[in-house]
Specification:
150 residues, alpha+beta, Aminopeptidase, seven-stranded mixed sheet
Length: 150
């Protein structure tokens, strides 16, 4: 299988920030804290378009927590590309990007109902480090997963 190409969003560009917000609102509509263009443009997270064979198949990103720790953010596979292993490829591409910039450990929080992503992370060597009931809001539970990069 070919690899994923990550192309960073320019979050200073309002139209790119709006595109990212629209994608997040479409795929994270269940989240009690949907992003706004202003929040995304404020920075703090590096977001990428994920391409496979010259087609954008999803998005992902990371947030630097410490000089050696990053948290992956908003890994999403567009509906028409689901079921073909693209989630695993995007997750691996973000992990590789974190490793490339010198990160030693990657963490991720995954909604409790996203069984597919939990399984992807476990297969990639992540361990469940915690369970957070009512994390974002009442009834919104998340798993924390982590992996030390080698």
């Amino acid at each position: 299988m070919d690899s994923i190409e990550l192309k960073p969003y320019n979050l200073e560009n309002e139209s790119e920030a709006k595109e990212l917000v629209d994608i997040c609102l479409e795929y994270y509509y269940r989240s009690p804290w949907p992003p706004t263009k202003e929040k995304i443009m404020k920075g703090g997270v590096v977001y990428f378009r994920a391409f496979y064979q010259d087609k954008q198949i999803g998005i992902s990103g990371y947030s630097i927590k410490t000089p050696t720790l990053a948290e992956t953010i908003k890994t999403t596979v567009f509906n028409e590309f689901r079921g073909g292993g693209m989630g695993s490829l995007i997750s691996q591409a973000i992990e590789d990007e974190c490793k490339r910039i010198g990160i030693k450990k990657v963490i991720s929080t995954v909604y409790y109902f996203n069984h597919v992503m939990v399984q992807i992370k476990l297969k990639q060597g992540y361990t469940i480090e915690g369970y957070h009931p009512d994390h974002e809001a009442p009834g919104f539970h998340e798993y924390s997963l982590g992996k030390v990069l080698k």
